[in-house]
Specification:
heterodimer; A: OB fold (Dihydrolipoamide Acetyltransferase, E2P); three-stranded antiparallel sheet; 19% helix; B: alpha+beta; Gyrase A, domain 2; Alpha-Beta Plaits; six-stranded mixed sheet; six-stranded antiparallel beta barrel; 19 strands; GCVT_N (chain B); methyltransferase (chain B); GcvT_bac (chain B); methyltransferase activity (chain B)
Amino acid sequence: MSKVVKGWLYSREHEWVEVLSETRVRVGITDFAQNQLGDLVFVELPQVGAEVVANQSMGSVESVKAVSDLFSPVSGKVVEVNSELEDSPEVINSDAYSGGWMIVVEISNPDELSELLSAEQYADFALEG
Amino acid sequence: MQAQALKRTPLYPLYAQHGAKVIDFGGWELPVQFSSIIEEHHTVRTKAGLFDVSHMGEVMIEGPDASAFVQSLITNDVTTLQTNQALYAAMCYPDGGTVDDLLVYKQGEQKFLLVINASNIDKDVDWIVSHAKGEVTVENVSEATAQLAIQGPLAEQVLQRLTATDLSQIRYFWFQQDVDVAGIKALVSRTGYTGEDGFELYVSAADAPSLWEKILAEGKADGVLPCGLGARDTLRFEARLPLYGQELGADITPLEAGIGFAVKLQKEQDFIGKEALQKQKAAGVPRKLVGVELIGRGIPRTGYPVFAQEAGEQDEPIGYITSGTQSPTLKKNLGLALIRAEYAAVDTPLAVEIRGKRVEAVTVKSPFYKR
């Protein structure tokens, strides 16, 4: 059974969004996603200062077998990037919600958060998906 | 057109019990992994892994003219085979492009077993049948035949515990027929697609599930794991074994793909594609399969264009990546690339275009791994 963190928000692209403040969120991919992808060997993330747009590709994760796009769940400016993932992408597999965090975004449109799923909604979505 | 149901091997009912993650592989429902691709890969390199390769095709060619017929179909020389010996070959189109790569087992003076790629079964059978000549019969026995492969340094010692036949007597690319393995009749060959020592076992479809369980049970003490297609691909890639559809195809000759050792142009008998391959060799093979190592950050993948390092934005690629991954054993980002021959020397600086960005790379020696 994949883990889901209560109180956080989720996208249909299997990203999690932890609301840090009114203007900042932390983003990563869910336990379900890392399980689907398998052993991750490479991650490409946006740089600090880059703009991201909701539902558009912001980078990629690669497993042994395949490349998968990462879609940003929110729009805004990247203010922090988890540099540990460059050398140790496997942290996403072992610790998707904590050590596997990817970026922190200064969001430009808080309304976008209401389009995301709750933990319960995401759990249903991931099960039926 | 209605989508056809995915095909399954006789082992499909057992996959779930072993935790398989099943995918659609060219119309077949097969396990990409059981535990993890990386773990399975390392297990084959250090212990042994068991693969279900029953999706592969098998074609029996028999009759007084079987040898001459096979000789006319394949690039390699079947007359060098003794009974219970096998060889690796290609079948080519008249223009030298590849129909398939395959193993040919000489089971008798008038009996040859061809083992072909699952993705090419229908095409190959049509090809073989349409070229049949002389007194021969051609039978597609793919569905009735299952194949398991146990591969790794411990493969022999594990398998030996299940048979009274002395496996040490079976040399590389030789086989024995009607071997009793755990009470099941099998053709056992010392062949494989991983770059490790190991055996391929051909059994009836009905016997496959039982043999699978028996090998896994016996091998548990040695750490034998069931392995899927993901590890099969990373293992064969490190050993530079071609995959039809990537390193070989209708537009790629065996000489370009670096399997010229299986092309005996000097063999007396004619074979389909011989003239075209002779011409290509005489003129200088225009493209070559090379190993590529990424220097910049990125993983090369099938289809990514390859450029000379000094190439400008407007310059044409000099070739493309046929297969690529992060090598689990070597822990480097590596690729095989089919590129223009003049760039094929080792240590040639290149660039691989990864999602629009040119990343620094260099040609390196291959195979990347040898046991």
